[in-house]
Inverse folding.
């Protein structure tokens, strides 16, 4: 580990139903690269863990009380543990897949990611531990079509999530486009590119 | 009217559904297929939801993903692999949402739910499809009066909408 870089605590959250997917291959490659250079990595594969994305009536009733449901307590612990958060997912309908959106809805809770002082309209940030959020995401359609759609998912990560993290938190947008028409060679090249970036984190 | 929570709608697309996604036919899941048929017969899509994290609650995002699949909302051209819209029979899309944040904050930071509904979804509709947005901001500090006025405004706006002659 060079002097400029030190071992970081990294949380990788993966969201894809198919374990043979490009998304999973990407997550596996990135995790291996991160561990190879000495980082501590914790992973949550939302589908493999059977993560329930739908915030239920009870959670909603208690959303201004600190804490999360017992079943997902480990997610909250890991979210507050990490320094770098990496979200690995396919962009669907210009945003995060429902299971990942649900992870945000349920885990980024009061007392975990924020609190709301009485009378305030704005959340007070609670994830000062996070200094980087990186979205690693593939898009079926071209960059042009996604720009036209407004890239809602990019803004969710770079704005809504980032604002609750460390004041100087940087965001990374590791995006690939046109995957609907990508050859196996191109897919491999994309994964290699993310591996190289992961090694330089 | 579809109440996603009341029917216990499953938000997460399954592996099978994902593998079948590019097939040009309606969803295999019975409920999703029924909803797809409703969309196929509709002139107006109205989405009513609280904005969470500047976007759609997971259950609604999941509805878009599992119902508006290839063969329902769009087709994939075999040769060019480009998206071909299939919702051109939809005349109007209306979003009705409540927000924790105040108007200026939402406007300056982002409104991703609105983006998804009025841009991404609209791209698979017709060129003449009109979108409308009705929003109640800063809901955590709103008064019962303000909320009642919003409900009345929603009713007025929907009643005043004009439709193409069939």
């Amino acid at each position: 580990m060079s002097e400029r870089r030190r071992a970081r605590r990294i949380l990788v959250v993966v969201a894809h139903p198919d374990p043979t997917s490009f998304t999973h291959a990407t997550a596996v490659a990135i995790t291996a690269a991160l561990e190879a250079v000495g980082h501590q990595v914790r992973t949550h594969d939302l589908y493999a863990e059977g993560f329930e994305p739908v915030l239920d009536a009870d959670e909603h009733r208690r959303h201004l009380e600190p804490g999360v449901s017992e079943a997902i307590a480990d997610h909250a612990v890991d979210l507050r543990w990490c320094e770098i958060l990496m979200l690995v997912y396919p962009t669907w309908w210009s945003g995060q897949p429902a299971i990942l959106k649900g992870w945000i809805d349920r885990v980024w809770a009061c007392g975990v990611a924020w609190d709301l002082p009485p009378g305030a309209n704005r959340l007070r940030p609670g994830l000062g531990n996070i200094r980087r959020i990186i979205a690693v995401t593939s898009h079926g359609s071209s960059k042009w079509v996604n720009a036209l759609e407004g890239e809602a998912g990019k803004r969710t990560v770079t704005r809504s999530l980032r604002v609750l993290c460390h004041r100087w938190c940087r965001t990374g947008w590791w995006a690939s486009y046109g995957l609907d028409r990508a050859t196996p060679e191109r897919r491999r090249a994309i994964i290699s590119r993310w591996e190289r970036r992961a090694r330089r984190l | 009217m579809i109440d996603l929570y009341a029917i216990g709608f499953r938000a997460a697309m399954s592996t099978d559904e994902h593998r079948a996604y590019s097939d040009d036919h309606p969803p295999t899941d019975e409920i999703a297929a029924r909803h797809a048929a409703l969309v196929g017969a509709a002139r107006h899509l109205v989405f009513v939801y609280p904005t969470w994290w500047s976007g759609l609650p997971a259950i609604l995002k999941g509805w878009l993903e599992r119902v508006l699949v290839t063969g329902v909302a769009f087709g994939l051209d075999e040769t060019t692999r480009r998206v071909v819209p299939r919702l051109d029979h939809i005349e109007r899309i209306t979003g009705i949402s409540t927000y924790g944040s105040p108007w200026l904050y939402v406007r300056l930071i982002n409104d991703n739910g609105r983006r998804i509904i009025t841009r991404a979804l609209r791209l698979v509709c017709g060129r003449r499809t009109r979108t409308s947005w009705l929003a109640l901001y800063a809901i955590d500090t709103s008064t019962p009066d303000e909320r009642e006025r919003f409900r009345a405004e929603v009713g007025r706006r929907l009643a005043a909408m004009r439709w193409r002659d069939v």
The longest helix of chain B spans residues 144-159. Strands of chain B lie at 44-50, 74-76, 83-85, 92-98, 130-136. The mean pLDDT of chain B is 91.
